[in-house]
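Hello,

Our lab assistant flagged a job as stuck in the queue for most of the afternoon. It eventually completed. Since we weren't sure the result was trustworthy after the delay, we are filing this so someone can double-check. Below is the sequence as submitted and the structure that was eventually returned. Let us know if re-running is recommended.
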Amino acid sequence: MALQKHVLSLFLMLFIIVIPYVPCYVTSQEDPLKIHGGGDSPFNNIDDGGTPKKLIQQSTQVLSLNRFVKLGVTSSSASKLNVNDFGAKGDGKTDDTEAFNKAWQAACSSGRDVILVVPSNYDYLLKPVRFSGPCNSRITFQISGTIEASENSSDYTEDPQHWLMFESVQNVTVQGGGTINGNGDTWWRKSCKKNPSLPCKSAPTAVTFYRCENLIVENLVIKNAQQIHVNIQESSKVKVSGVTVSAPEDSPNTDGIHITNTKIIQISNSVIATGDDCLSIESGTQNLLASDIACGPGHGISIGSLGETGTEELVSGITVNGAHLSGTTNGVRIKTWPGGSGSASNIKFQNIVMENVTNPIIIDQNYCDQKTPCKQQKSTVKIRNVLYENIKGTSASDVAVSLNCSQSFPCQGIVLHNIDLRQEQEAQIPKALCQSALLSYVGSVSPRCP
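-- returned structure --
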């Protein structure tokens, strides 16, 4: 027994001595292969005051998402409710809003598992509607038909920001292979981005999930949103899969999936082609995993913008693993306004193919989307621990890698690992421009910063 205690004590001493030794990233002049120890994952070596442990925890939370969302799956013994039984006509002309309201209230108050059916071969016209909770039942909203938005702007006077809204519900699944059509053309024509002579006004978001938990959204077509297609806000334990989002390339502000203040979210096997960001990841988003995403046309996959009007904003634990971007105006982008505070940290962009993409890799810590130049500020949203790994393809711009970081607060822990980007024309090697970025290269990286 004494010998065992002695061996255990030696082991603990070695553990304490060895574990804290985590090499830091350095500038690109040094050999990153030595720093990272060859075959080790480069991101695991980033030293940020205990960050590796946090990264492991975040990955575990995202990967264990299935354990949570199973709670929202309705059992095979669930009762079925059909919106037609509550007076819906589904002829594409009659206002079916009240029928949908009644059907939802019946499902929400049933006290047992419910499948709320929107049957195929029907076309339902809806004004703005809220499907509110909390409910005392688990609900599967089975959309097999088509739901279309009213094009009459006067129908949106009470709530000009939302069309379909799921609010404060738990254990809900929205699925079915049907179509949600925002009929956005009416709104696009009135946009100042289409007609600069018009005043700039916001338009409704097509589908909003607000303060939802254990949410599944799968196998749906969502198209032609008035503005944002899907907004997931202040929610947790969310799974989105098999979703097709589409709008014309010139449709203004039609983000595909917009996420803000949401924790533990998985987005997979989805096709997004719109006039704005395919994925827009905003402040308060933590532990997000996006995989098997087809994006384009559109503005790419964006984190931010963050820090507008000097606000403090935080984003962390974001992984995009497996994406194909085609013809987008940006690739994978992080954008922050000068003057803000907070951080965007522990971010991975992995296994991504770029096809004729402008600005494939871009960090802009001096983002300024306004008519007058932004003033120089003493603070900014800090960017740290960002991995770009196994990214290849073609750039439509001369600059394929742009790291425009703050001189006061440089980007830290930026890693480029196995990058192969060439210009679309004549397979030439594009440029990389880097300012105030503390970065490392691992493996074969092209282009590199001068």
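-- support follow-up --
The delay was a queue issue, not a problem with the job. The result is valid. Residues 1-64 have pLDDT under 50 and may be disordered. The first strand starts at residue 79 and ends at 82.
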